[in-house]
Design a protein that fits this description.
The protein has 2 helices and 6 strands. It has about 120 residues and is an alpha+beta fold. Strands 2-1-3-4-5-6 form a 6-stranded mixed β-sheet. It binds zinc ion.
Length: about 120
Amino acid sequence: MARKSGVEICGFLFGGREGDAFTVKEIRFVQNRLNSPTAFEMEPLEMVKAIDDAEERGLEVVGIFHSHLKCPPRPSGRDLEGMELWPVVWLIVDDKGNHGAFVLEGEKVREVEVEVV
Ligand SMILES: [Zn+2]
């Protein structure tokens, strides 16, 4: 999906939590209002709607995903700022099909495992 886009794509992972494990039940794309190949910002109204829709079905935000086009799937400085605002799992995919998932713990970024079931 990221491969076909000239701009960063982004959106939410919705699901539930059991202890330390998150289960993603739904992926929802949100427009990147920056339309940029190196940064993203979710279109605010679409973002609120996505969260409302999910909550109606008993799902919560467990993660945020976005793509990196020319750099590895690790959080950028800008992503770290976003991670402070949204303390959920941050999933980053690149244009070669690699991915990484991260959480911010205090000032440290920790990589978390993604298991596809
Ligand atoms: Zn990024």
